[in-house]
Specification:
The structure is a single chain. By secondary structure, the chain is an alpha/beta fold. The protein has one domain: Rossmann fold (3-Layer(aba) Sandwich), CATH 3.40.50.620. It is built from eleven helices and four strands, in the order H-E-H-E-H-E-H-H-E-H-H-H-H-H-H. It has a four-stranded parallel sheet, with helices on both faces. Helix 1 crosses helix 2 and helix 2 packs across helix 7. The radius of gyration is 18 Å and the shape is globular. The chain starts with a helix and ends in a 13-residue tail after the last helix.
């Protein structure tokens, strides 16, 4: 019986083959999700994988961790610093909220990833997992703008288990997940709930077994799922 990692690798190979693409490009953030996707894609396409390190007012530690992942799995990388582009863009745009400005970062990264993908005839691999996708914790047309999602069926706890199996460095597995949207930002802090609790609530909602859970938590997750419904759907199109 195939292991989970082997099944995902075969799935990635089929996606690339069926699309007529020559390889894969992904953004390497220094976090666990991109590390796992990088390791899986490396197994799937070998040297036809390019990982882009795309700092944008990013923490130096994340850049170090990105390089650690590339060294661990032998992934070819290129670095494109988007800090000055981001600064110039925000200087000409009207004032907006902290979140709106922060969302420019993943959208700029998406532009760069597709620029490389178009030039190389590669597909863009996304790093979103089931927990994040279920509650809409991703930027529309940012980190949500991808060609494939190898971790879409895995809760965060499953990603952690897979990371250990693949040999992702322990310090990357155990560090607090962050989207790097602003200094000190963490996923759990922004969501207001731990991934462990999120995984439990999401699984319980899907199975219909929510009786033993804190109902306030269930209500919060239900609201996140419902309010982000539009992020997971095809674009509505009027057909006369």
């Amino acid at each position: 019986m195939q292991t989970l990692s082997n099944r995902i690798v075969e799935w990635i190979k089929n996606i690339v083959s069926d699309s007529g693409a020559d390889g894969i490009v992904l953004g390497l953030s220094g976090g666990i999700d991109s590390a796992v996707v990088g390791a899986l894609c490396k197994r799937a396409v070998g040297e036809k994988l390019l990982a882009l390190i795309l700092p944008c007012h990013s923490e130096q530690g994340d850049m170090v961790d990105s390089e650690k992942v590339s060294e661990t799995f032998g992934i070819k990388t290129e670095k494109v610093d988007l800090t000055s582009v981001y600064d110039q863009l925000t200087s000409i745009l009207p004032p907006s909220s902290e979140l709106a400005n922060a969302n420019l970062k993943p959208r700029l990264r998406m532009i760069v990833l597709y620029h490389y993908a178009n030039g190389l005839n590669y597909l863009v691999a996304g790093t979103g997992n089931k927990t994040e996708l279920e509650i809409g914790y991703f930027t529309k047309y940012g980190d949500g703008g991808v060609d494939m999602l190898p971790l879409a069926g895995l809760l965060k706890k499953d990603v952690r288990s897979l990371a250990a199996e693949l040999g992702v460095p322990e310090e990357i597995i155990s560090k607090p997940p962050t989207a790097g949207l602003w200094k000190g930002q963490t996923d759990e802090g922004e969501i207001g709930m731990s991934y462990e609790e999120l995984d439990t609530v999401i699984s319980s909602i899907r199975s219909g077994e929510i009786g033993k859970l804190e109902q306030a938590s269930v209500a919060k997750v239900r609201k996140l799922i419902e309010s982000s419904h539009h992020k997971r759907q095809s674009i509505p199109a009027f057909i006369p």
